[in-house]
Design a protein that fits this description.
There is one protein chain. With 313 residues, the protein is α+β, with helices and mostly antiparallel strands. It has a single domain (2-274), classed as Beta-galactosidase, Chain A, domain 5. It has 4 helices and 17 strands. The chain has helices at residues 2-20, 243-250, 269-274, 294-312; strands at residues 25-28, 34-38, 59-64, 73-76, 80-81, 84-85, 90-93, 96-104, 107-115, 121-130, 136-146, 153-157, 170-174, 180-184, 196-200, 208-218, 222-232. Strands 7-8-9-10-17-14-13-12 form an 8-stranded antiparallel β-sheet. It starts with a helix and ends with a helix.
Length: 313
Amino acid sequence: MKLHIKLGLALACTAWMASNGAQAQSVTTTLGSNWDFTATGGTDGGAFTGSCESSPASLLSDAQSTDGDSDMYDNAWGIWVDGVPLSGAITTSGSTASVAAQTLSGLSVSADYLFSDTIEAFRLLANFTNPTGSPLSVTVEVPANFGSDSGTALVSTSSGDTSFTTADNWAQTWDGSSEINTSVFYLPGGALTPSAYTETVFDCSGTQGLGATFPLTVPANSTRRLMFFAGIAEIDGTGSTDTANATANAQQFNSFASIDSSLTADLSPTALSETVNVSGALPAPPTPVPALPLSLLVLLAGGLGGFALRKLK
């Protein structure tokens, strides 16, 4: 039944894309993981309600681990702003994918995905720019529907138990067979943490998944960002069914400094300073002290020397 439902959804999605000129795109990493995108990941409800209906929304449609296990997602890691999904054009290049900026609730919203070539994980950087002269406050929702469907079970969290609360920055799920998902919604110490979590998202062959809600305020003429990480299988690329190994590898998401550098090395000090749900990143370099002209230094030295001689007398 699950296969028939998914086949029907896939055919509907293909028909919608054909009629609208949209094309699915994918990224394959050097490690061998594969990540599929869709421009038709919308629902007839919202991020956490309704069902997949192939309306515009740009997000991951699926992922496949290095050992060939697929169906990791049933549409995931899109950005909803005040109930409306980001649906800009998707472009891919090498190990990256971007969703073009779109105006949502007065903000210019875009998304950048970076896929690691060394571990089975990616980083999502959601960007929110306020072009107006007044602060803008919005509700940001980030859903991830898992391909594990009814078999989905929470097996670990950052606090070490199986209860997912907003005190946890990440959680790990498994279907008891092969589909392990690690979802990271913030890092400890971040200025902004989720106001709520949910383990029920839109219905796409099931409502099983994880989602986070953020009350985001962007100051006038400023940019703020939300950074997320996600892993599949055991994360390190060694297999897809060892949850103990997957949980051990997920510990890197307990701090920015311990995350594999393939997911963080490209970030600029400006981007890091604008990211509100992450802490522990490198601070902006200090403002350099201007150098004094040599002639002025000579005069100062002479003056100080004369003052010292007078004091000795």
